[in-house]
Amino acid sequence: MDDLTEMLKGTLEGCVLEIIGGEETYGYAITRRLNELGFADVVEGTVYTILLRLERNGLVQVTKRPSEVGPPRKFYALNDAGREQLATFWAKWQYVSSRIDRLKEGGR
Amino acid sequence: MDDLTEMLKGTLEGCVLEIIGGEETYGYAITRRLNELGFADVVEGTVYTILLRLERNGLVQVTKRPSEVGPPRKFYALNDAGREQLATFWAKWQYVSSRIDRLKEGGR
DNA sequence: TAGCGGTACCAAGTGGTACGAGGTACCAGG
DNA sequence: CCTGGTACCTCGTACCACTTGGTACCGCTA
């Protein structure tokens, strides 16, 4: 599937939030996870900008831990604000996707 | 529902394409239609920029017709390239929305 | 021990898209 | 004549995913 980037705007951040909500994890692993999930073209640079934004907006708690196979990892976990933001994201997604699906099924 | 603008990026153009595909129509009416459909905050300026883009990209055929209740209207209809683009849009939407729904339903 | 591939992070700049604000103009009714 | 509805457009802004390029840690192997 080619070039989904425009369609991912506004949703990719929510996806990252959901992944972090599932378990405490770090940027490199999140990228791999997204690729697994079918977002094949999402690259590290993109994920890191999202993570920095989440941190800047106070939605995550960050913990640095050493790794045995490479440089130290920055683990991200949702805080209360993050969980709230995630709920809002899913509400918006539900709203938007249902309207679009309705439009697809012939309008009214 | 508040501020869906980021989530609409990349999908709004497809929605406009779908509306035009349903029947030949014009900018002002498309805006009203989107508002009806639940995209309440979409304003005329947004729709016009999309319509200009569609025209520039050669996806629509444009016909100007006088109106009895105001200034002349610019009617838009899909051409072959437009119909193809619309099909591509729905394929992408299907792809993206299914992956996101899967992520929502606990991952794998 | 030098180099390579995998792991892991970050920064600066680009391009596309929706939106805000404002302007023009046609028309009917009070 | 003036207001409100209809109908079009333009310019600037903000935001987001992406591109490109860089740093650095680690284990393996030639």
Automatic annotation (TrEMBL), chains A, B:
PANTHER family attached to this UniProt entry: PADR-FAMILY TRANSCRIPTIONAL REGULATOR (PTHR33169), TRANSCRIPTIONAL REGULATOR RV3488 (PTHR33169:SF14)
Organism of this sequence: Dactylosporangium siamense
Domain Transcription regulator PadR N-terminal: 16-87
Domain of life: Bacteria
Protein name per its UniProtKB record: PadR family transcriptional regulator
Transmembrane regions listed in the UniProt entry: none
Pfam family, one: PadR
